[in-house]
Amino acid sequence: MNWDDTTDTSDGERLVGASADGEDQAVEAALRPKDLGEFIGQEKVREQLDLVLRAARARGATADHVLLSGAPGLGKTTLSMIIAAEMEAPIRITSGPAIQHAGDLAAILSSLQEGEVLFLDEIHRMSRPAEEMLYMAMEDFRVDVIIGKGPGATAIPLELPPFTLVGATTRAGLLPPPLRDRFGFTAHMEFYEPAELERVVHRSASLLDVEIEPDGAAEIAGRSRGTPRIANRLLRRVRDYAQVKADGLITKDIAAAALAVYEVDARGLDRLDRGVLEALLKLFGGGPVGLSTLAVAVGEERETVEEVAEPFLVREGLLARTPRGRVATPAAWAHLGLTPPRSQAAGNGQGNLFGA
Ligand SMILES: Nc1ncnc2c1ncn2[C@@H]1O[C@H](COP(=O)(O)OP(=O)(O)OP(=O)(O)O)[C@@H](O)[C@H]1O
Ligand SMILES: [Mg+2]
User: What span, in angstroms and rounded, lies between the C-alpha atoms of 213 and 215?
Assistant: First the structure.
């Protein structure tokens, strides 16, 4: 397995950020469910994928290409490995950004074994020429290798063994339709229910040999933003706390105290999320305020606010993106224990100095 090619969009220190870095990746690998039976939640996807794989196995054929889309940390990489395991096929792992030239892709494709699973992470970030080569490879199991340059260049067709492409993307909307249409099966992964995350926490705790009470697992699950990767990460931080400050057993109180230390609040908001909300409420009266202004106010890059903090705040119904700027919802005021000004409560943020 080759991890060098995978691009890490890690945001370092953030405990609830959904991407993984160094140590995390190692632990994550250890916590990954190995087959569909171990994979928790995503009932629809699991049932459909099970049918696709069983049928292919029964026909003695290579499984159809699979596209997995969904937010970071929901289990796309895990599922791709499960697909390979269920097909008893080897897997090759690479990512869109690692394939800059069509030649890079040709080299990978031409070295695939029959039935092999090619996992292409962040498939929306592949270069255009590579993407066009992939169309042909997916459909006809053939690529044209270009030899030479300029007018003298010739295309040599190269037959490929049948393989299964598993593409993963956090942004299905960015995939060009011709690429999307070439996948025989598309699975959209949803955020997990708290009860499912509790099962994830219990499973991981037992793999890590950590003792946890049901209430403790529920406490962690509730702050995990519907994301198994975050649940696993919070579990490990709570374990540290339980080990140092108590006898190692994770109870509800221990979990809550630990997560307070790490500044993850009851809804799973961390320091950055709260900073954004606080600025929006306290400095701008709940908005509307432009993204750039808001970012300056919290001392962060525009992109960090937009891509790291906002998606969760929007999903939680705490913040709305409107054409005039960012606006706090009544739930945001309630969550921070603040009272909205009269104009906000009446639902009009007009006359605000800081409008977008
Ligand atoms: N359904 C699940 N059941 C149990 N654990 C899960 C499940 N899905 C994901 N996990 C855990 O969450 C971690 C992250 O999953 P994974 O790496 O597959 O996410 P991803 O969707 O590929 O994220 P990214 O978009 O950042 O690459 C894994 O280590 C795994 O342990
Ligand atoms: Mg992944």
Answer: 5
Break the chain into its structural domains and give their ranges.
Answer: 3-27+192-261, 42-188, 271-346
- Pocket flag, ligand 1, residue 17 (CB < 6 Å): no
Q: Is the CB of 170 under 6 A from ligand 1?
A: yes
Measured by CA distance, the residue closest to atom 18 of ligand 1 is 75
pLDDT interval class at 352 (50, 70, 90)? very low
In CATH terms, 3-27+192-261 corresponds, of 3.40.50.360, 1.10.8.60, 3.40.50.620, 3.40.50.10540, to: 1.10.8.60
Whether 104 is catalytic is: no
Could you say which of 14, 76, 92, 225 is catalytic?
76
Average pLDDT estimate for 207-215: 95
We find that the CATH architecture of domain 42-188 is 3-Layer(aba) Sandwich (3.40)
Q: Is the pLDDT of residue 13 over 50?
A: no
Catalytic annotation present for 142: no
| Both tokens assigned to 177 | 């339709």
Q: Which atom of ligand 1 is nearest the CA belonging to 68? A: 21
The amino acid at 338:
L
* pLDDT recorded at residue 149: 82
- The answer to whether 169 is a known catalytic residue is no
In this prediction the pTM is: 0.85
Measuring from atom 26 of ligand 1, which residue has the nearest CA? 72
Q: What is the mean pLDDT of residues 336-355?
A: 61
Q: Is 170 a catalytic residue?
A: yes
Using a pLDDT cut of 90, give the percent of the chain over it: 70
Q: Are 67 and 76 in contact (CB under 8 A)?
A: no
Amino acid in the structure at residue 69: S
Q: Which of 11, 68, 77, 78 to mutate to test the pocket of ligand 1 (most atoms within 8 A of CB)?
A: 78
Burial letters 73-111, b for 16+ CB under 10 A, else e: bbbbbbbbbbbbbbbebebbbbbbbbbeebebbbebbee
